[in-house]
Specification:
This protein starts with a helix and ends with a strand. Helix 1 packs parallel to helix 3, helix 8 packs across helix 9 and helix 12 crosses helix 13. Helix content is 45%, strand content 16%. The protein has 396 residues and is of the alpha/beta class. The protein folds into three domains: 102 residues, no CATH class; 56 residues, Alpha-Beta Plaits; 191 residues, Rossmann fold (3-Layer(aba) Sandwich), CATH 3.40.50.150. The chain has 19 helices and eleven strands. Strands 7-6-5-8-9-11-10 form a seven-stranded mixed β-sheet, sandwiched between helices. A four-stranded antiparallel β-sheet has the order 2-3-1-4, with helices on one face. Helix 14 links the parallel strand 6 and strand 7. It binds S-adenosylmethionine. S-adenosylmethionine binds next to helix 13 and helix 17. Pfam families: Methyltr_RsmB-F, RsmF-B_ferredox. Belongs to the class I-like SAM-binding methyltransferase superfamily. RsmB/NOP family. This is RsmB/NOP family class I SAM-dependent RNA methyltransferase. One of its GO terms (molecular function) is methyltransferase activity.
Length: 396
């Protein structure tokens, strides 16, 4: 593949923005692509993929590159991908033999898999021998998965409609509303997206709303609703009948959920900002179903957000675990006796998942609950994101 000055500069600028200014990769890529409307689909694809890949392999590239000059780092990445470098002055001092030689000398998993050492140690201690292949899987590129909005269309109709436009998809077994794109592309531009016929949502994430066993007419609380991905799915499963209270501590995220609801033809979502314990107390025993899609490290979705591994630390992992336990302890009061609560994370760490549930069940408030089932979804087994989903019942 031939390299072009303008797009390589786009990658270099984006990488410097991410690492020097500590910005999120997805936001930086979005900004870079927006600032250059003349780039075509291939150029955009090249930039997005190269930036994500460089972020993913940052530690490895830095170990091999002859310097921390961003062109050298890009050149190293490009050669590691099995490509050739053009004769540009910026790439002076790097060649494929040197890159191969330095790569072959690396033995340790933390560098080879390009993750911080503390994370490698934590992963191994918590996941044992599963860690090796899990981190390998989490370093690959994720599929683009759609969730069909059954309020507007069926999976078969959407599949046919997209196929007529040349967008090939397949329906993965075991995920009744999911379609996987055959080829990565910007699907947000598709008219079916603008018409609210689908959302982009990983297949594992689609298991969360399903676990709540909702029926039309129920009163549901989605207590960490964010931009409303799971609330929208719940609304579709409830045939847009009943009530969903979508709550979060961040009001701007709920605003986003409102816009998405309008596009999806959903009218039963009511956003509510959590302003403290008072908001929770007022809703005591008011919900038939309660979803706690709690904040987490995001280690199950590293394929989508590779920069997570450079942003988290042992301290932030401990802090988020504290928040998770606080949420389950305090928010579980909003569920009616006999109701069902789902606790979910997009993490693969037992300390954020089954250990949190065990701690809750052993506590005073947890005595009112029983665990019905839980799913520990690893990326290496499912082929999709890593997730944890626990389904609990509040005793009558
Ligand atoms: C995993 S995200 C939710 C994703 C969302 N459910 C979706 O499907 O798109 C976790 C959310 O919890 C919110 N959050 C963090 N601390 C919270 C708290 N104490 N109470 C409620 N929400 C909180 C964050 O703002 C974030 O939007």
């Amino acid at each position: 593949m031939k390299l072009h000055t303008s797009t390589v500069h786009g990658v270099i600028t984006a990488i410097e923005d991410i690492f020097k200014n500590n910005r999120y990769a997805d936001k930086v890529i979005e900004k870079t692509l927006r600032s250059n409307p003349k780039w075509g689909a291939r150029d955009r694809g090249f930039i997005a993929e190269s930036v994500y890949d460089m972020v993913r392999w940052w530690k490895l590239i830095n170990k091999i590159s002859p310097s921390d000059n961003t062109f050298h780092l890009f050149g190293t990445y490009w050669l590691l991908q099995g490509n050739e470098l053009p004769d540009w002055k910026e790439f002076k001092g790097i060649d494929s033999k040197m890159v191969e030689h330095r790569f072959n000398k690396i033995q340790d998993r933390a560098t080879l898999q390009s993750i911080p050492e503390w994370l490698d140690e934590m992963g191994e201690s918590l996941l044992g021998e599963m860690w090796d292949s899990e981190i390998e899987t989490l370093n690959t590129q994720a599929d683009v998965v759609l969730r069909v909005n059954t309020l507007k269309t069926s999976r078969e109709d959407l599949m046919n409609r997209l196929a007529e436009e040349g967008v090939e998809t397949y329906a993965p077994k075991g995920y009744k509303d999911a379609l996987v794109l055959g080829k990565r592309q910007n699907i947000f531009k598709n008219p079916a997206f603008k018409a609210g016929m689908f959302e982009v949502q990983d297949a594992s994430s689609q298991l969360v709303a399903q676990a709540l066993d909702v029926v039309p007419g129920m009163r549901v609380i989605d207590a960490c609703a964010g931009a409303g991905g799971k609330s929208l799915h719940l609304a579709a499963l409830m045939e847009n009948k009943g009530r969903i209270l979508s709550m979060d501590i961040e009001g701007w995220k709920l605003q986003n959920a409102k816009l998405r609801a309008r596009r999806a033809g959903v009218s039963i979502i009511e956003p509510r900002v959590i302003e403290g314990n008072k908001t929770i107390k007022r809703l005591k025993e008011s919900a038939d179903r309660l979803l706690l899609d709690v904040p987490c490290t995001g280690l199950g979705v590293l394929r989508r957000n590779p920069d997570t591994k450079w942003k988290i630390s042992p301290e932030s992992v401990a802090k988020v675990q504290e928040i998770q336990q606080e949420i389950i302890q305090n928010y579980s009061a909003m569920l009616k006796p006999g109701g069902i609560m789902v606790y979910a994370t997009c993490s693969i760490l037992p300390s954020e998942n089954q250990d949190q549930i065990a701690k809750f069940l052993a506590s005073e408030k947890g005595k009112a609950f029983e665990l019905l089932e839980d799913q520990k979804v690893l990326a290496q087994e499912s082929g999709f994101d890593g997730f944890y989903i626990a389904k609990l019942k509040k005793k009558e």
